[in-house]
Design a protein that fits this description.
Keywords: Glycogen biosynthesis, Glycosyltransferase, Transferase. It is a single chain. This protein has 17 helices and 17 strands. The protein is of the alpha/beta class. It has 2 domains: about 260 residues, Rossmann fold, CATH 3.40.50.2000; about 190 residues, Glycogen Phosphorylase B (Rossmann fold, 3-Layer(aba) Sandwich). Strand 6, helix 5 and strand 7 form a beta-alpha-beta unit. Helix 9 packs across helix 12. The longest helix is centred in the N-terminal third of the chain and has 18 residues. The chain starts with a strand and ends with a helix.
Length: about 475
């Protein structure tokens, strides 16, 4: 079976969020199970590409509106990442420094999808399944079925995997002229509420769709930016498969990015040594519990109330906790957090930006990780944290509900709150601190969390089972 994963992110080449980690691991584990899994993504002008030898494998031309665009396809061999990866470069559109943030993103992703289809058609590349990841490639299922030039490819099965339903790639219909020619009788499959919506189009045109947790699949029928009824109507084609983590990258016993390795046997001393080294770097004392937030500064992640939560907590508990924050995003949220660091210089430290090494060090050093999300399709941070013996404090939604069991439940190992309220979050942090005072119980849940199996092995099998269903 040949499967192409189509995505605009892939670790370690271009990473903004969890999408990159999934695409950087899932194909590798599928190949171990005998599937010819590959990745196709845009080319970016990033230093991360300089470590690889790029081989030019194809060139072509296509029309985007009245403009003639050229594309070049580069290959990175399997031995580098554990799977073959192809990068499509289109001068002026797919050759930029960043993944997101450009005013013409719609044109970028149309060009990526058009160039991809042109390439596999011209070079006689015939996958059994194209696994499309998020709205950026959501036009593929429609174009395979109704694109005038791609009818030869219409038999290829498509799985649309939803990593975040909050972003749907909305475009005004004046962008319609940029699309490859298609059967205009089917224009309604592109439209939602008077605009082109690649996300809703993918749901309606794909052979099946999946979400990155079972909990998130349920929640999409209750809140998805106006598409709730669509998910109810199409529920028979929806599947929830929780994400995994790549143990080749995330394992405290061998992680090259942390100063001291440890296992679930040596976790106590290992985490203490990592904590001492990390706190020295972060200019924090190491004699209190360390709680960490890692993620985007966005409302969906709950980052907008992070400052209020910490100020509320410190108004009565200042000596009991030190806090580290790693992330970037909304400028107002960052300014609030900068002021927070100034208010509590010996208790709160932050690094604003993306730093993979610092993230690994933080997981190894921390006692608790906070995820106060409004929306969390799956969440990978809690899975990384568990593997490193760092106990999650999370809101019980989406994938967090699927992967973290509250300590009050049988076999529980985390701390879960349901309401998105400052007081509830503070109470849950206080509950975690109180629990930590019993060293024997704390050591038990740390060891339990490290023994949980959230590797990609099980999830990769579920994806393959779903592909096989589509091919029958």
């Amino acid at each position: 079976m040949k499967v192409i994963h189509l995505s605009v992110e892939c670790y370690p080449i271009a990473k903004v969020g969890g999408l990159a980690d999934v695409i950087g691991a899932l194909p590798k584990y599928q190949r171990k199970l005998g599937v010819d899994a590959q990745v196709v993504m845009p080319w970016y002008d990033k230093p991360s590409l300089q470590q690889f030898d790029l081989e030019k494998v194809a060139e072509g031309v296509f029309l985007q509106g009245s403009q003639s665009l050229t594309y070049t396809v580069y290959a990175i061999a399997e031995q580098h990442l554990g799977f073959p990866i192809y990068l499509i470069k289109v001068p002026g559109l797919l050759d930029r420094n960043e993944v997101y943030g450009y005013a013409d993103e719609g044109e970028q992703w149309i060009a990526f999808q058009h160039a991809f289809l042109n390439w596999i058609l011209t070079d006689n590349i015939r996958p059994d399944v194209i696994n499309c990841h998020d709205h950026h490639v959501g036009l593929i299922p429609f174009l395979l079925q109704y694109g005038n030039d791609f009818r030869e490819l219409s038999y290829i099965k498509t799985l649309f995997t939803i990593h975040n339903g909050q972003y749907q790639g909305w475009m005004n219909w004046n962008k319609g002229i940029l699309l490859p020619g298609f059967d205009t009788w089917k224009w309604g499959l592109l439209d939602w509420s008077g605009v082109i919506n690649p996300f809703s189009s993918a749901i309606r045109c794909c052979d099946a769709f999946s979400t990155v947790s079972e909990g998130y699949l349920e929640e999409l029928s209750q809140e998805c930016k106006g598409l709730e009824q669509l998910f109810i109507d199409e529920s028979s084609r929806g599947f929830g498969i929780v994400n995994g983590i790549d143990w080749d990258v995330w394992d405290p016993s061998s992680d090259p990015l942390i100063p001291y390795h440890y296992s679930n046997i040596t976790v106590k001393t290992g985490k203490r040594k990592n904590k001492e080294a990390f706190c020295k770097k972060a200019n924090l004392p190491s004699d209190s519990l360390l709680l960490t937030y890692i993620g985007r500064f966005a409302e969906e992640k709950g980052a907008d109330i992070l400052s209020e939560v910490i100020r509320n907590f410190y108004s009565k508990n200042e000596k009991k906790l030190i806090i580290f924050i790693l992330g970037s995003g909304n400028e107002q949220i960052q300014q609030d957090l900068e002021l927070l660091c100034q208010s509590y210089p010996n208790r709160v430290s932050a690094f604003f930006g993306y730093n993979e090494t610092l993230a690994h060090e933080a997981y190894a050093a921390s006692d608790l990780i906070l995820m106060p999300s409004r929306v969390e399709p799956c969440g990978l941070n809690q899975l990384y944290a568990l593997k490193y013996g760092t106990i999650p404090v999370v809101r019980g939604i989406g994938g967090l509900k699927d992967t973290v069991i509250d300590i009050s439940e049988p076999k529980g190992y985390g701390f879960v709150f349901k309401e998105f309220e400052v007081d509830k979050i503070v109470e849950t942090i206080e509950r975690a601190i109180e629990f930590s005072l019993d060293e024997k119980k704390w050591a038990s849940i740390v060891k339990q969390s490290m023994a949980l199996d959230y590797s990609w092995d099980k999830s990769a099998k579920k994806y393959i089972e779903l592909y096989n269903q589509l091919l029958k």
